[in-house]
Specification:
By secondary structure, the chain is an all-alpha fold. The chain has helices spanning 8-34, 46-72, 77-97, 101-135, 139-146. The model has no long low-confidence stretch (mean pLDDT 83).
Length: 147
């Protein structure tokens, strides 16, 4: 039973982020109907234009986020999950702040920092896994002994 819970937190964060993307898409559709904008006709209603672009930008980074999240699990699933939740929050800030130039920058910069952290954790975890598997040397074990 304990082995089944190993990836519980990253799975939960993945689902949370998937629900967020669905919500953003729903908001775009709702706003399109409000402004009577037909799909692919984004030349009118500036509010709709900004909303659809913020949703598209979030969608473009989504595969990068998921790859980084699952790779970072090799380092620490708890830390990866925590950063994943922060990323979901950063996307929320970005999406809702897109109505102004300055409003979107906070979410954008925060999400970029989190992605860099996840990539770094993933790299460290993979290197540690290879060292442990092939050289019987675990950096994580050494670090845990220090603390």
């Amino acid at each position: 039973m304990a082995g089944d819970l190993i990836l519980l937190w990253p799975v939960a964060v993945s689902l949370l982020s998937a629900f967020q993307q669905c919500h953003f898409a729903w908001l775009v559709g709702k706003l399109g109907m409000k402004h009577k904008v037909m799909p692919l006709a984004v030349t009118e209603a500036p509010e709709f234009h900004r909303t659809i672009h913020s949703q598209q930008n979030c969608v473009e980074f989504y595969p990068i986020f998921l790859t980084d999240l699952w790779t970072a699990v090799f380092f620490s699933q708890e830390l990866a999950s925590f950063l994943g939740v922060l990323y979901v929050f950063a996307c929320y800030k970005y999406f809702h702040g897109y109505q102004s130039v300055k409003g979107r920058l906070t979410g954008f910069y925060l999400s970029m920092i989190i992605l860099i952290c996840l990539i770094t954790l993933g790299e460290a975890g993979i290197v540690n896994s290879f060292l442990d598997e092939y050289l019987d040397f675990s950096i994580m074990e050494k670090v845990h002994k220090l603390f």
